[in-house]
């Protein structure tokens, strides 16, 4: 089931457009990839946790440890694969967020479920769960072997045209949106999802889509600047 989990009128005004539209979009809004017909995917969920910080509405992100075997060093939403003990996909998202960032689920209100999105690299079928951080709790990298950094990033900073560009991988056909904000380099699945959410939520500002950078070169430059 996708769509709102609560009445849109019960969430902050700035979050209502996303809650209201959550039941009107399908996977093609977010990705061009379709699940394989044989159904051999792994269910997973990410928690897209919106809060209200000193700089206004923000979202919780983490950077994966550089030593991980897959997606090392990449910025992501808290999340992971479903486990047998999870009551549903919302429970998966909340459990993973608590395990990775220490967020207290009792202060989190799930507000909407977006369509399942297929990620070919991992073969995960990922369900994004939107939530409002009603009672913020301290967060941190619970296991440094898995998570390097946890951060609350202001939506206004993500929407700032100075922080936005596109990246490509020559020879692969890959091109997608990216962000360089608060010392984080966001690309891939997470950046694509954020880019669409900024638009759907009404936060997007005009930015230069013709600024296309080589991914590997952009990552090296970012590493040099943030050391």
Observed structural traits:
Nucleoside Triphosphate Pyrophosphohydrolase; 13 strands; 227 residues; 33% strand; 9-stranded mixed sheet; 22% helix; 4-stranded mixed sheet; alpha+beta
Describe the protein's architecture and organization.
By secondary structure, the chain is α+β, with helices and mostly antiparallel strands. The protein has one domain (3-226): Nucleoside Triphosphate Pyrophosphohydrolase (Alpha-Beta Complex). Helices cover 22% and strands 33% of the residues. The chain is built from five helices and 13 strands. A hairpin with a 2-residue loop joins strand 2 and strand 3 (56-64). The longest helix has 13 residues, at 89-101. 34% of the residues are buried.
Shape: globular
Q: What sequence of helices (H) and strands (E) makes up the elements?
A: EHEEEEHEEEEHEEEHEH
Rg of Cα set: 17 Å
Q: Helicity range of the residues?
A: 10-25%
Count of separate DSSP helical elements: 5
CATH architecture: Alpha-Beta Complex
Structural class: alpha+beta
CATH topology term: Nucleoside Triphosphate Pyrophosphohydrolase
Major beta sheet, specifics? 9 strands, mixed
Span between termini: 44 Å
Report the CATH superfamily.
Nucleoside Triphosphate Pyrophosphohydrolase
Q: Find the count of extended strands (DSSP E, 2+ residues).
A: 13
Strand content: 25-35%
